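User: Hello! I'm new to structural biology and keep hearing that structure can be predicted from sequence alone. Could you demonstrate with Redoxin family protein? Please show me the input and the output so I can see what each looks like.

Assistant: Of course. The first part below is the input, the amino acid sequence of Redoxin family protein. The second part is the output, the predicted structure written as tokens.
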Amino acid sequence: MAHSVKLKAGDEFPEMTATLLDGSEVTLGKPKGEANWQAVFVYRGKHCPLCTKYLNEIESYKEAFAAAKVDILAVSGDAKHQLEAHLEQLDISFPIAYGLTEEQMKQLGLYISLPRSEKETDHNFAEPGLFVVNEHGDLHVVDISNNPFVRPEQGALTRGLSWIKKPNNHYPIRGTLDY
């Protein structure tokens, strides 16, 4: 049985891009604006009602992320037309990208699922993942799941990131011991 490779805390975040609806490429893990960190939320796709709810919930914490100088980006393996249709159910103002390839999903160490039917979706898709990339381009926080109902709670996440980033707390990247 083949084993997936998981990114480790402290690793340099891999160079990869996805596409925004305007056709421009966005580099995952590269914060924009005033932010010096970026939270990359990988979601399953339009077919997942829990993802829709989660993405809308992220929007309600957008100011808390901004206060912590953490940029937000969401991405899935959906195609452009699927993201366009999904936007009808989303009330978000942060960037959302499409076209994450299966190879990129593997590079990120995400769990990948087969669709249960063509009605669900027409491609293999990533299960949820969160990658928080610090100002050095390193993976500071990693959270991957094999199902859509286990994800970080946004309040705890934003409070934790705000605390981690305070210089006087001297909080290192956790979970770096190899075994």
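User: So the tokens describe the shape?

Assistant: Right, they're a compact way of writing down the 3D structure. Reading them back into a model, for example: The longest strand covers residues 37-42.
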